[in-house]
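Q: Protein A?
A:
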Amino acid sequence: MKAVETALPEVLIIEPDCHGDYRGWFMETYSEPKYKELGIMNHFVQDNHSMSAKKGTLRGIHFQNDPMAQAKLVRCTKGIVIDVAVDLRKGSPRYRQWVSVELSGENKKQLYVPRGFGHGFITLTDYVEFEYKVDNVYSKEHDRGIRFDDPSIGVDWGGLLNGIEPILSEKDINAPLLENSDCNFIYKASN
């Protein structure tokens, strides 16, 4: 297993070891001691699993405000997505910057998204299954989102949106721009 740094140093691409032979393959999707060796010290307390039926389904950009913020360890188990993490910490030298990575059932990569970052993905295929661990339980009171197309962030959703209307939830359709949101993340040099 190895961690690959991104343009946002806190966000890591994880490439698990996968062992295969004529029967198929096996991999550890999570081992707390191994992830600690990579610098991921979170204690994950909840697993989530979603299915998106249609190509072009966009989920995000989501987060939970403090004190219920969540770090996430995400992976796509079936299909292909472009996965995005956005630095939402006011005062961060990388505030509003984002990174993206293709995650798929085939490449088995994971993305570690720490607290203070927004997260979203768009499906590149029909029937996508997406799983992720979080280090804090879901809190409806703290659940937030910002517009996927916020011009102050400028996420490139893989060019898929050229002439295509993404499939969005009501929550995402009505999400505010970051400047109009109550996002309460503050950068601390130690995080």
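Q: Protein B?
A:
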Amino acid sequence: MEDINLNNTIAIIYKKVRIKKNNYVLIPTEVSRGYLDMNDIFTTEDGKHFLSPFTSKDILEDSSNELVYGSQILYDELEELYGAEKDDAKIMAKYFLTISNNITIARIRNDEVSINVEPLSEFGQLRTKESAKSTPAIKKESDSLDDLTRIDNFAL
């Protein structure tokens, strides 16, 4: 029997949050080492199973699956990106930090999933500009004793 390393895949586990119909934000929660089987099921070293990646329409729409996986990469490729380390956790942490500096938005349109990944800092700046434009002006009404007197008289 051929000796293969089943735990050579690294994946980010995301919390799926529906923000409106057919729109989801994917928030990275952890990085895990494991393997993908032929059905695209990711199994972590400790035996947790995650169905198809978040690029699947069915997985996004399934409310019973709050956690999904994505951003999978082979461990060997991580070593090429970040350099070899004695401690595997350090390389995985660097990868997680890279991923968590982005915001991932998944949209379902015409039964197809589109994924947008944007730097979190740019999304925050864009959101701040949008908020400033859309914030309604609040008028401060002057308090007048005449107005209060009219209300009291009406109440009597």
